[in-house]
Design a protein that fits this description.
The chain has helices spanning 2-25, 97-102, 224-227, and strands at 32-48, 61-73, 76-90, 105-120, 133-145, 149-151, 156-158, 174-187, 192-203, 249-261. By secondary structure, it is mostly beta strands.
Length: 272
């Protein structure tokens, strides 16, 4: 149900981008300008997947980001940036009996490069006395790096190297995702603004947590410490270890401080 709701939200955001672009572009010449910003994001990151199927903001870890935004009208902006976060989950901390019995856990750093298009629902510009705040939506593309690890008693070890579900191929550590989200912007003065945002990332892998399908049959080639940690040895080869019918998600959320950059080539005669 959570994934369905997020898919519907994503579809709604994309629909808004396309329909409002057509509607507003006819009037955009009235509100065109060029404004460059440098932003610093601080907040949290978390994931939804086999080890945390429904708990939004559960297992959140601190995240950081930096981005460049170019606003070419009061409504539209383009943005590119880098985010760092951490995702993790632990069956032992779940309230579900079957997850406690499975007894898996993971942690992974997330390094992301993204490009967004943004749409402001009302006209907004840093330094403007008449356009001080706006709700906004965004969507785009991202490339990210992940490498799920788990504690085996001797520190963290990479799970990917052990093919814990008997995969014939390694999953790629660098993959693409579809980020989208919603936020709120507000002026702090002539040269700065503040914004809050929440952004899901729709991935194309089910291995952010190294859990997807079945317990492998070749358990003699894979140490049980890595693939089967069931408390009462209930997991059998061929039984379900995860849900291969879904894909994992990761999320960034937080507050950013945005600073307007001066354009040395174009004088500015007004702030509104």
């Amino acid at each position: 149900m959570t994934v369905l709701i997020i898919d519907l939200l994503r579809a709604a955001f994309l629909y808004l981008f396309f329909t409002l672009t057509v509607f507003v572009s006819a009037q955009s010449h009235k509100r065109n300008f060029g404004q460059r910003e440098l932003g610093f994001l601080g907040g949290g990151s978390y994931y939804i997947g086999d080890l945390n199927p429904r708990g939004h903001f559960l297992y959140s870890k601190p995240s950081l980001g930096i981005f460049y935004r170019y606003s070419f009208s009061y409504r539209y902006a383009l943005r590119a940036g880098l985010n760092y976060g951490k995702i993790e989950a632990d069956d032992a901390r779940s309230s579900e009996a079957d997850q406690k019995e499975r007894n898996l856990n993971f942690t992974s750093n997330i390094y992301e490069f993204h490009t967004f298009a943004e749409f402001n629902f009302v006209e907004y510009r840093i330094g403007s006395k008449d356009h001080r705040f706006s709700l906004f939506v965004f969507g785009g593309l991202a490339a990210y790096y992940f490498n799920p690890k788990s504690s085996m008693g001797n520190g963290l070890e990479s799970l990917r190297a052990y093919n814990t579900e008997g995969q014939t191929e390694y999953y790629r550590k660098i993959q693409m995702s579809i980020p989208f989200g919603v936020g709120f912007k507000m002026n702090l003065g002539h040269g700065a603004g503040i914004s809050m945002e929440w952004g899901p990332r729709r991935t194309f892998t089910d291995y952010l947590d190294d859990v997807s399908g079945q317990y492998p049959n070749n358990t003699g080639q894979i140490p049980n410490t890595f693939t089967n940690r069931s408390l009462n040895e209930s997991a059998k080869p061929g039984s379900m270890r995860g849900n291969p019918g879904t894909r994992d998600w990761y999320f960034f959320y937080g507050i950013s401080l945005n600073f307007k950059l001066r354009d040395a080539h174009r004088p500015c005669y007004k702030t509104g």
